[in-house]
């Protein structure tokens, strides 16, 4: 039971990262490699702030700000510096690695005997593992509510239009460069926030903890879309969170089958690859059914 509760809690926390990735990957329709630098940057800022005596909630909000900063830099390199988005993200991700070492002072910094947002007094009476579920649910609810309100404003619709058809959006007078910068800032802010929360849940920050995070986020998005199909925009945000939880259950099953935690990244890549190929399998399956009915290929 404790493993199931832990998987749900981890699913909520990692789901915040998936929400951020959803904004760039699905709405703006481009890959943002900044994710793998933003995530440990948010964790490093949060853990360093807590170890220096800052309030855990304030430290968590600082991780949000740290993520928005990396998104701003990537956005400026992309829109003003005319650097391709993939390369801009890699440049920021690479530079942030050294900054994380400066912030932490070493490769790994722990939170032993430090107060975190998950060890707040009002959570003390909850059963083991439920603190991460409770905190994760609160932050997920806030994130989805604020994103939902934003996306249905004129500014949010301009942001969506930029991702749908940039030329059309520009012809309507929308400053698409600003929309891209805004999207990258909001997305990476959520990713930095996830880094801060997960670092507190794990009890440490590590400069290498961002490796593979983009695969984890994409897996949550794809699993959510495959599992729930066509949905409204807000429902898709909820599906991303549910996809993140389902992904954690997949990892839990993998552990129960005897695999090592060292295999997680390989399993993540395989799960993502299978989910991405699922539409192809469905198409072939449907085509097979048509053949049986005597319908020829068009």
TrEMBL record:
It is found in: Cell membrane. One of its GO terms (cellular component) is plasma membrane. The lineage of its organism: Bacteria, Bacillati, Bacillota, Bacilli, Lactobacillales. It comes from the Bacteria. Keywords: Cell membrane, Membrane, Transmembrane, Transmembrane helix. The chain crosses the membrane at residues 6-25, 60-78, 85-104, 130-152, 181-199, 211-228, 237-258, 264-281. This is Abc transporter permease protein. It comes from Ligilactobacillus equi DSM 15833 = JCM 10991. PANTHER family: ABC TRANSPORTER PERMEASE PROTEIN YPHD-RELATED-RELATED (PTHR32196), BRANCHED-CHAIN AMINO ACID TRANSPORT SYSTEM, PERMEASE PROTEIN (PTHR32196:SF69). It holds the Pfam family BPD_transp_2. Its main location: membrane. InterPro entries: ABC_transp_permease. GO terms for molecular function: transmembrane transporter activity. It is a multi-pass membrane protein.
């Amino acid at each position: 039971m404790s493993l199931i509760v832990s998987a749900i809690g981890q699913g909520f926390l990692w789901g915040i990262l998936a929400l951020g990735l959803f904004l760039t990957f699905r709405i703006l329709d481009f890959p943002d490699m900044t994710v793998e630098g933003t995530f440990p940057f948010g964790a490093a800022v949060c853990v360093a702030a807590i170890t220096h005596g800052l309030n855990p909630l304030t430290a968590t909000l600082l991780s949000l700000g740290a993520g928005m900063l990396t998104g701003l830099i990537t956005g400026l390199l992309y829109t003003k510096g005319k650097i391709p988005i993939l390369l801009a993200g890699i440049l920021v991700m690479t530079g942030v690695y050294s900054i994380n070492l400066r912030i932490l002072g070493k490769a790994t910094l722990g939170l032993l005997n430090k107060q975190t947002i998950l060890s707040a007094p009002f959570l003390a009476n909850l059963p083991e593992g439920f603190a991460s579920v409770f905190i994760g649910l609160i932050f997920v609810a806030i994130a989805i509510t604020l994103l939902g309100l934003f996306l249905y404003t004129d500014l949010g619709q301009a942001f969506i239009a930029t991702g749908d058809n940039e030329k059309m959006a520009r012809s309507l007078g929308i400053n698409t460069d600003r929309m891209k910068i805004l999207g990258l800032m909001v997305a990476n802010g959520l990713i930095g926030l996830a880094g801060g929360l997960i670092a507190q849940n794990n009890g440490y920050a590590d400069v290498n903890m961002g490796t593979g995070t983009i695969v984890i986020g994409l897996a949550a998005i794809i699993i959510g879309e495959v599992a729930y199909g066509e949905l409204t925009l807000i429902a898709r945000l909820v599906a991303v969170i549910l996809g993140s939880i389902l992904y954690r259950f997949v990892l839990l099953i993998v552990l129960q089958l005897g695999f090592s935690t060292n295999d997680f990244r390989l399993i993540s890549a395989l799960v993502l690859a299978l989910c991405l190929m699922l539409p192809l399998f469905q198409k072939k399956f449907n085509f097979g059914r048509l053949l049986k009915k005597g319908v020829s290929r068009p």
